[in-house]
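User: Can you model how zinc ion sits in this protein?
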Amino acid sequence: MKIDMRSIYRFTPVEHSGPLPSGGDIYYECACGDIVSSVSYIAAACECGNVKGGQGSATVQDAARVKPVRGKLR
Ligand SMILES: [Zn+2]
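Assistant: Here's the modeled complex, given as structure tokens:
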């Protein structure tokens, strides 16, 4: 079962230059439309496989396809 993160969090874009930021309230929005926590402790991946999370971090294959966003609980 897939959880729609947007039903739980309100996401706002994060200004950044250089490497993608990470942190407890930072999520990666992939071009495929999925959102993965930047510090995911559960195994997670976006639909296209560009972002994979787990063990407290997330791995991004193509950073150009990822937008960092800040998530706040609704
Ligand atoms: Zn993706």
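A couple of observations from the model: The chain has one domain: 5-73. Strands lie at 9-13, 26-30, 35-37, 44-45, 51-54, 57-60, 66-73.
User: Helpful, thanks.
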